[in-house]
Amino acid sequence: MIDKQTSSSDQCEKQLNALDYLKITVLGFALTAMWSSLHGIILPIRLLAYVPESQKNTYLGLLTFTGLILAMIIQPIAGAFSDHTSSHWGRRRPYILLGSVLSLILLPGIGLANTYAAILIVYCLLQIGGNTAQASYQAFIPEIITENKRGLASGVKSLLEVLGGVTLVRLTAFLMGRYFEGGGEFWMWTALGALVIVLLAAMIITVLTIKELPSTNNIRLSLSTMYRRFKVDFKVHRDFGWFLFSRALLGIPGVVLQIFALYYLTDVVGIPNPALVAGDLPVVVGICLLTTAYPAGRLSDRIGRKPIIISSGIIGAVGVLALFFSHNYVQVMLSGAILGVANGALLSAGWALAADLSVKGEEAKYMGVTNLAMAGGSALARLVGPVIDFFNGFRQGAGYQVMLLVCFISFIAGAVLVVKVKPTRLRG
User: Fold this and answer.
1) Which of 135, 158, 358, 398 lies at a C-alpha separation of 20 to 30 Å from 323?
2) How many domains does the chain have?
3) pTM score of the predicted model
4) pLDDT digits (tens, 9 = 90+) for 44-91
């Protein structure tokens, strides 16, 4: 017998069209644009004015590590509260509005801050806002989309996230490149302004156009039940635990290479204006992501999630090896293309598998815990910064070699661990 919630979801799914899939996932476009631009371009350039040159990787890594710890705390909490919220706006949209507005207010603070401590404070508050919005929005796919269409929806989500990363990061790189060369603060404020406009538009579309399913969870969340509501019984959901471990490892290389790319291009490859090239690299990666994310999501609906994820890990490891032997612009871009193919497939199939493993009625919590694992991997990736500077102190460039080794091992180990997740039987 199909329960009422499944029937509602199936009925909603039949009424969805291409535009509806875009509405459900458009906020991912804006959030990815914001974080990719900040992590890959804006923050590395801003910190150069406030930290010692020999410790730039350390300061950048610790800055983003602190923010990611907050993300690990905020996402499951905001997701669980969203699961248990009842309002005429629905369970998700109030938190999306609150988190997005907070982010919009805080973004200009990245430009106003004039010390490392000030940037750290603004960045951490921005993590709170952005992850409050994300924790609720990401529940739309498991909540609204039926299981046999989640690969498709996850492919659309990944597609929009890649587009957000590619278009805005390239624009940010151009604008911050002018700022980096001494063109004035106008270029920095234009870059931040573009992120504000995109996030504002995505928030409005999401809040005003999404029609949420009626809530079947009438249990109120109180302090006495918070721990029980947040807790996942990994003895019962062992497959979910293995998936989380695998996902954390597979997420490390992308974060490491994004965060420290600008410094790597400067110190190892020897690019004179790394900001512009650091903008070209996400474009190449993004194009390859675009070519693989959607078809990989559709393919995972047919053959399962695991084969796609395992293949992605192997391809990603090959991309890291290619980057190790890259010594010029063309070789770096080729390595980025390989990594883009790997991560495009990984994003779609990984998110679809997370949706498959989530428990009905607690979708935001489980997707939040999934992002918690991803944030944990991201947090560990930030700690590679001090490692880079430490080994660079012994021999110039040695730290970046260790960085690439960490990425290679993470891809392989993540692919191996997902083998332990039992395949999910798809409907339809």
Assistant:
1) 158
2) 1
3) 0.73
4) 999 988 999 889 999 999 998 998 888 878 877 887 787 777 777 777
